[in-house]
């Protein structure tokens, strides 16, 4: 049962719980990214009142309630233009229909990712990337293409990340990563055994890591490990035409991270970009 339905069907709510219910219903788009402290302040209630309501609705706590709010939002988005993320077109579809379906799939995937992300996590991830002495990216298949796209954008910030698996010598690379560096893993399923081993090794070395994934079951959070989750309606291990939705979402999140990083020193970065462009337009480069 969806969050809003549970709220409507829940009897015997206290006055505090009714205020929280009303706020959630009228600010559903804000709930996935809100903190329990902020919600308590906005509803003039308390942390404990919010947790009690979450458990009364059948959730384990406020975090699960936020995930339910995200699911409700994505269901609303899907209802605007349902497209099967695994098979977004049929063999009999016209070119016009295929183009329309792919446009809808792209739009829904981005809106769904936006509804799920936590702005504070993105800011923390951007700061880790900016503070690191060196950046290392792990990603395979389509995810490595996303990593390379992100790598290409960061060059404009005078940051040159390393694609750790580029020459299939990741063990040598990992052994030379230090806690002044930062490592980004991109994996929709996050079920690659080597990545699990590498992350455990980096955790022991106190290396900051970021995991971009679609696996909501990844709950291990530590001081050094930051996990950004964006789920899509894709089959992880079953047949599908392509990884359209998940990769669209990953590209959107990485583009957003780049924009946040650029904005940290906007004037400086813009000036450097213009100076570089002027140099590229002359014959003085080489």
Task: Explain the overall architecture.
By secondary structure, the protein is α/β, with parallel strands linked by helices. It folds into 3 domains: 3-78, Orthogonal Bundle (Arc Repressor Mutant, subunit A), CATH 1.10.10.10; 80-115; 117-274, Glucose-6-phosphate isomerase like protein, domain 1 (Rossmann fold). The protein has helices at 3-9, 15-26, 36-43, 47-56, 62-80, 95-116, 119-131, 142-154, 170-175, 193-204, 244-264, 266-280, and strands at residues 135-139, 162-163, 182-186, 209-213, 225-229. A 5-stranded parallel sheet has the order 2-1-3-4-5, with helices on both faces. The longest helix is centred in the middle third of the chain and has 22 residues, at 95-116. The mean pLDDT is 88.
Q: Pick out the low-confidence regions.
A: none
The first-level CATH class of the largest domain is given as Alpha Beta
> What strand order characterises the main sheet?
2-1-3-4-5
Identify the CATH homologous superfamily of the largest domain.
Glucose-6-phosphate isomerase like protein, domain 1
Beta-strand segment tally: 5
- Average pLDDT for all residues: 88
Number of domains: 3
Work out the helix count: 12
Order of helices and strands: HHHHHHHEHEHEHEEHH
| Secondary-structure class | alpha/beta
In CATH terms, what is the architecture of the largest domain?
3-Layer(aba) Sandwich
Main sheet, how many strands, which sense, barrel?
Answer: 5 strands, parallel
Helix content: 55-70%
Residue share in β-strands? 5-15%
N-to-C CA distance: 64 Å
